[in-house]
Amino acid sequence: MTIRKIVIIEILKTAAGSSKACLSSSIVVVVVVVVVVVVVVVVVIVIVVVVVVVVVVVVVVVVVVVMVVRY
Question: Which residues cross the membrane (predicted)?
Answer without folding.
Answer: 21-41, 47-69
